Amino acid sequence: MNGALAIDVRGLTKRYGGRAVVDGVNLQVGQGRICGFLGPNGSGKTTTIRMLCGLLRPDAGEGQCLGLDFRKDAAAIKRQVGYMTQKFGLYEDLSIRENLDFVARLFELPKRREAVDRALERLGLQGRQQQLAGALSGGWKQRLALAACLIHEPRLLLLDEPTAGVDPKARRDFWDQIHTLAGQGITVLVSTHYMDEAARCHDLVYIAYGTVLARGSEQQIVEGAGLCVWSVEGERAGAWAERLRGQPGVQSVVAFGNALHVAGPDADRLAQTLAPLQAEPGLRVQASRATLEDVFIGLIDRAQDNFAPGAPGRPQA
Ligand SMILES: Nc1ncnc2c1ncn2[C@@H]1O[C@H](COP(=O)(O)OP(=O)(O)OP(=O)(O)O)[C@@H](O)[C@H]1O
User: Fold this and answer.
1) Is 210 a pocket residue for ligand 1 (Cβ < 6 Å)?
2) CATH, range 228-289
3) pLDDT at residue 254 greater than cutoff 60
4) Atom of ligand 1 nearest to the CA of 50
5) How sure is the predictor about 312, in pLDDT bands with cuts at 50, 70 and 90?
6) Is ligand 1 within 6 A of the CB of residue 44?
7) Which UniProt keywords apply (predicted)?
8) 46 lines ligand 1 (CB under 6 A)
9) pLDDT given at position 59
10) Could you tell me the distance, in angstroms and rounded to a whole number, from the CA of residue 40 to the centre of ligand 1?
11) CA spacing 20 to 30 A to 4: which of 128, 188, 207, 276?
12) What value of ipTM does the predicted structure carry?
């Protein structure tokens, strides 16, 4: 394998009706790493994932997945990849055990019973194995879907928004499981819209309009963005939101309870705009730390600008 990279693709491109929905994406994920794949709706995450596991034919791109040519060796790659789709894809009128047995048959596993038992045990599903999948809560359904992904002992997991709509406790348990799997050497590429989940990834890739806008660890992305953030706090802080939007140096204003998060890339202009608020009674104005969410909101705002008529080319990380 190339430098212990489980995924190493360059120039990945997919077009629909002449429009590139994935546009020259480079993606490298180290073996045993958890890489979070983030971006707004329709940014190209699912399309990228489906090209990586050989379900969609790319229009351009080259590279390797698990040391195999991702274009020529799609069949061999599929056998070593566990792909969890956004929607629950198992049979609701079969039990947990029957669903896993069905998947084991699809993979033509030689020792099916043992494989099913192993998957049940791995995800703590033994006690529920006779329950119908359709009767499970969202969290247990996700657990079953992950068990099904693991039944053929894949080396790479491609998880497409695996915890959408799942409660925080079940999401936390799911992520503990993901870390256990990564500890066993399994590589994980996981798309998510949740910032707390992004923080649990080793590496992050942020994509918008089919183009990668940022990559690195959470710390690298936040520091690399050079975004300045101020907190404007007080019972009447909300009344200032509209007045601050569009002012010099202000890129975004987001309310969190009694506080506004005011962000912008130019420290001096932002400080000048906020200076008069320091004298307002009942308002506390202080410099704050940028979060991943602040950075992503800033990135998408700028990316939209770059799509405007007459705008220059898009940024590429
Ligand atoms: N078969 C298709 N034909 C035409 N357009 C498509 C097709 N599949 C996807 N697209 C378009 O490609 C773009 C990227 O879609 P994709 O599902 O990859 O985004 P995503 O980042 O996974 O979004 P989400 O976060 O909502 O799941 C969207 O604009 C979508 O409408």
Assistant:
1) no
2) 3.30.70.940
3) yes
4) 18
5) very low
6) yes
7) ATP-binding, Cell membrane, Membrane, Nucleotide-binding
8) yes
9) 97
10) 11
11) 207
12) 0.97
Instruction: Classify residue 19 by burial, with Cβ atoms within 10 Å: 0-12, 13-18, 19+.
Output: exposed
**Nearest one of 310, 18, 10, 31 to 188, comparing CA atoms:** 31
Q: Which atom of ligand 1 is nearest to the CA of 39?
A: 21
Segment 34-54 shows an average pLDDT of 95
State the pTM of this model. 0.91
Distance CA 102, CA 240 (A): 58
pLDDT of 307 strictly over 80: no
- Residues 262/274, Cβ–Cβ less than 8 Å: yes
- pLDDT at site 87: 84
Ligand 1: which atom is nearest the Cα of residue 47?
Answer: 18
Tell me the C-alpha distance between 183 and 33, whole Å: 9
Sorted by where each begins, the domain ranges of the chain are: 31-54+74-221, 228-289
- Index of the ligand 1 atom closest to the CA of residue 49: 18
Which residue owns the Cα nearest ligand 1 atom 4?
16
31-54+74-221 CATH pick, 3.30.450.20, 3.30.310.50, 3.40.50.300, 3.90.1150.10? 3.40.50.300
Give the number of the atom of ligand 1 that is nearest the alpha carbon of residue 161. Answer: 27
43 Cβ closer than 6 Å to some ligand 1 atom: yes
Residue that the structure tokens 């969609």 belong to:
56
Do 116 and 151 form a contact (C-beta atoms < 8 A)? Answer: yes
Q: Is the Cβ atom of 39 under 6 angstroms away from ligand 1? A: yes
